[in-house]
Structures
1.
Amino acid sequence: MSQTPTSMVKLSAIEKTWADGTRALNSVDLEVPQGQFCVILGPSGAGKSTLLRAVNGLMKPTAGKVQVDGLELTQTSERELRKRVAMIHQHFNLATRASVAANVLSGALPEVSLARALCGWFHPEQREKACHYLERVGLKPEHLHRRAGELSGGQQQRVGIARAFMLDPKVVLADEPVASLDPQISRDILTLLKDAARELNATVICSLHQVDLAREFGDRIVGMRSGEVVFDGAPEEFDDQRLGRLYQNADWGDGEPTQAREDTPQLEAAGGM
Ligand SMILES: Nc1ncnc2c1ncn2[C@@H]1O[C@H](COP(=O)(O)OP(=O)(O)OP(=O)(O)O)[C@@H](O)[C@H]1O
């Protein structure tokens, strides 16, 4: 008998209005089940990063409720949240002067006491796990003691993935993880991320700019525009017409707005694209 998948992330009526009046999120409802690779797609300024930051607690919504693994964020300590939710960043966010090993081990910090963290003392099991993940992401033993900043972009993102998986997270948030990488390396990195998440049955919410990658890797595509969800469905449903509507007159992040086409209807309400 098939079971209804557990909802791992649940956003209910999330609003975010920044101090300058910018409305970044407008009544966003989103439920992401356990184990899903959910891609957030949309033009620059659509609210993708703001949404991801709502899930990891870095952005306090103006209104609405965020739940992760059944816990409401306002009632959850940062430490509890960090054990469940890991983040992968566009610009890797590594300590570039520290070793690759130290960067990966830093993913275990929410589980380590301050005194031990200051001395750089990690459990042998944590060191073993760091080695396991470094191997898992395709880095070699000789990389362990190199400074992270000396690695290529693709290698740095591999370190970022290994770090993110150190605490067996239930949720991995990836904010444009391949934006600065070339197409083949982007595919390798997304394959790694998807496979590593599948091994743990972890939920991934990944913002992307590349539509082809969203279609290839997403179990589901959520299209955002002007702070609203305007498409939510399977990649097969996200056809070129819907793509056109999502990006109509929009900024692709390269400063080149797409031209409106006369036959392109106005955006409809969520799910109605
Ligand atoms: N700290 C802030 N203060 C004021 N406005 C902000 C702040 N952070 C984001 N915004 C605004 O909120 C809106 C959504 O931004 P967000 O970064 O979430 O978009 P995005 O879809 O991730 O864009 P991109 O693809 O370019 O990264 C934008 O209008 C942005 O300028």
2.
Amino acid sequence: MSLVPLCSDLPQFLQGYLPNATKKETSIRPFITLTYAQSLDARISKGPGIRTTISHPETKTMTHYLRYHHDGILIGSGTALIDDPGLNCKWGRDSLANSPRPIILDTKQKWRFGGSKMQELYNKGLGKPPIVVVANDPAIKEHHVEYAICPMDKATKQIDWEKLFEKLKKDFNIQSVMIEGGAKVVNQLLLRNDIINSLIITIGSTFLGRSGTEVSPLQSVNLKGITWWKGTTDVVMCAKLDNE
Ligand SMILES: NC(=O)C1=CN([C@@H]2O[C@H](COP(=O)(O)OP(=O)(O)OC[C@H]3O[C@@H](n4cnc5c(N)ncnc54)[C@H](O)[C@@H]3O)[C@@H](O)[C@H]2O)C=CC1
Ligand SMILES: Nc1nc(O)c(N)c(N[C@@H]2O[C@H](COP(=O)(O)O)[C@@H](O)[C@H]2O)n1
């Protein structure tokens, strides 16, 4: 499906929150944007296992414009298994060149590239092959997939986000990453002002109800550098996570 044109005021609105393509990031980690679409009641889907459209076509186009500006796009395995997303970039003339590298956080090794929408796009020359983040050498290695082995923290049984992003930059030359979700990933990273450079949230004018998948961090989070854009049905907030 093709995209509607990008609203003319969006590039200016987003400019201060995007990785700077001309300036190589000097940090040991890539530039990281946390971005997702939520309902008025802070839900990102109608419920477990339900792929839900929240964004209006004009903010969907904005998401593809964001994809255009990043080297990598990271999602958790929950999202990969439920949504079977394409994660390519349809904005601009050359989908293959413009698409970010999909990065799937799949430490339980449940997701398969084979048979996925991502593989279909890759086979058609419309998307890049994924990097799959695993905790140890995978038993099954799929063709065209690269693996980022990132040991789990023994206490938390989670990967160390800092080490993962350092590895993505050092081993895969990923200079910028947009993180699209899902809820488990977003709820962790909303607390990481040491890692997240920009926060871009689309808010759709709908309520998805209490059985919806909620985004809400464990503790309160303060924002700074806040700016809003208003579209036909959605608003978009750009901000930075505060250090307080
Ligand atoms: N509206 C929107 O913008 C978006 C909505 N979604 C929705 O979100 C839902 C999926 O969200 P969730 O179920 O929360 O799944 P998720 O996509 O956050 O993936 C969770 C899985 O990722 C792995 N993971 C996450 N953090 C980890 C860590 N620190 N260390 C090791 N492994 C880790 C684990 O395997 C975990 O089970 C779907 O319904 C999807 O449609 C997803 C992305 C964007
Ligand atoms: N921006 C945005 N708006 C919504 O309404 C959404 N449901 C999502 N979901 C994210 O986009 C992925 C789908 O990508 P493709 O269109 O298949 O390339 C999905 O997996 C979520 O990460 N995003």
3.
Amino acid sequence: MTVSPAIATDGLSKRYGSTTAVADLDLTVPSGVVYGFLGPNGAGKTTTMRMLTGLVEPSEGTATVAGVPSDDRRQLVDRIGLLPEEPPLYEELTGREQLEFAADLRRVPFEQIADRALGLCDRLGLGEDLDRRVDGYSKGMRQKTAFVQAVQHDPSVVFLDEPTSGLDPRAAKTLRELIVELAADDTTVFLSTHILPVVEEIADRVGVLHDGRLVAEGPPGELIGSVETEGGADLEDAFLALTGDASEAYATE
Ligand SMILES: Nc1ncnc2c1ncn2[C@@H]1O[C@H](COP(=O)(O)OP(=O)(O)OP(=O)(O)O)[C@@H](O)[C@H]1O
């Protein structure tokens, strides 16, 4: 029996006027993996994620996510989760109301997923703040709420854009653990981040985008092994070699 990939794209491209944001992308992401999606600023990562989540129409090519064509937004939202760079939260709601609202959008009764949602909040240290309004939340509290909102309905595929942004070290560690647990429970995690040690630690596979093109793909160890260095190479070395610009300053925290 062949298991369908979680994400498959065929010649996926996006142009904005004379700018080619994503060019002829053929990507296959197996089910149940953590997939690190890397690339310099402006490489096309966000645009790719927007196409895969049905928010932006491709100029050419097709994509299937969790078995659904990416232009079938109605079916897609039930099967995916998205944590974008700028989390969409309603300032006037409490954290709990925000999570209930997100469940409603997917026509999932919140009571059905409350144990999972509130358990995630507790793990992230958000439990005691859930009845406060979002407009009084810190950046980290917003990020935690947006993460729970993205995964509370147990999606088949979740897209995370810089998920540890603004999180303190303890919460960031918990979030990394949660990502690994999600994948172990068969949720495919599509993770875009500039924090390469995190990718090296938790990603099963990595794709590197450069100028809208996929320039490398495989397990992190394979990418690192492809780089020649005098000492031991790491994913940052591989990234810099593959994207050909040693001046890109990348976080190494
Ligand atoms: N709505 C838009 N209109 C015009 N150009 C756009 C638009 N969205 C993205 N672009 C362009 O497409 C290219 C890819 O941008 P994108 O945001 O996908 O990159 P990224 O890899 O996510 O970058 P970063 O790491 O900085 O977030 C850039 O040249 C960007 O200026």
4.
Amino acid sequence: MNDIVLSIEDLRIDYASDPVVHAVAGVSFELRRGEILGIAGESGCGKTTLAYGITQLLKPPAEVVGGAVRFLGGDQPVRVDELEGAALRAFRWDRISMVFQGAMNALNPVLRVRAQLEDVLTTHRPTMTKQERRDRCEHLMRVVGVPAERLDAYAHELSGGMRQRVMIAMALLLDPPVMIMDEPTTALDVVVQREIIAEITRLRDELGFAVIFITHDLPLLLEISDRIAVMRRGEIVELASTRDIYHRPRDPYTRELLAAFPSLTGERLEYAGAATSTTEEGA
Ligand SMILES: Nc1ncnc2c1ncn2[C@@H]1O[C@H](COP(=O)(O)OP(=O)(O)OP(=O)(O)O)[C@@H](O)[C@H]1O
């Protein structure tokens, strides 16, 4: 069995604006079966463009100008970047699914959650019976921690956290070997964010799918990833195990990124009050 599920080779994506932006400037990496690969980097470094490029969701003026994306998690290798039309639609969700920032707002406001989940199954698993579809949807709701009764709700009747969980359920419906998550919890409050992250790592352990997890939140990546790729100006400047990124960062930019976050483990310093304060007031 191949240990690599996805291979990205020298992927290049431009925005054909004036001047041209080389948003992804020759990115190569391999995603291993069942791993969580974190992609970190400051705003504008090309993370989202990369995610959309891998799944062929880019819209003009964005354009893939070079490289290859190969899915290796099935019987035959698939050149994802060459898929079109019905073949692309059949591939997406089934082999690689996505949860993007604000995905929770992608739910259709006039359809019940059940109809939207069942629609994915009707399209991709046409031989499933009605009862099988019902069972699968109810199972997935339980898997992501939403009571199955909520299948009868409309999106506006659910909290932001629940809606994002529903989107994760949708991404898991077809049991894909790869999930791409781009800031999947950024729009949520910290407590809900932690719950959902814990859920994603638990599901990964249980179901064994691989995840590309994109965020500017490096401490979060250090917590959940097996390996981390650090992106800067459209390129990966360092890709290593999370342990090495944390303890032995090689690239100066990785060190800079790490230094930008307060240490979680170092010596505890006593708070001495605001540096600019000249009075005792409010101390
Ligand atoms: N429609 C567009 N036209 C021209 N340039 C664009 C367009 N969309 C994005 N870019 C540029 O492409 C580069 C990469 O943007 P991208 O959104 O992929 O970065 P990012 O790392 O995901 O940032 P963020 O974390 O803020 O979402 C940036 O320089 C951005 O300004």
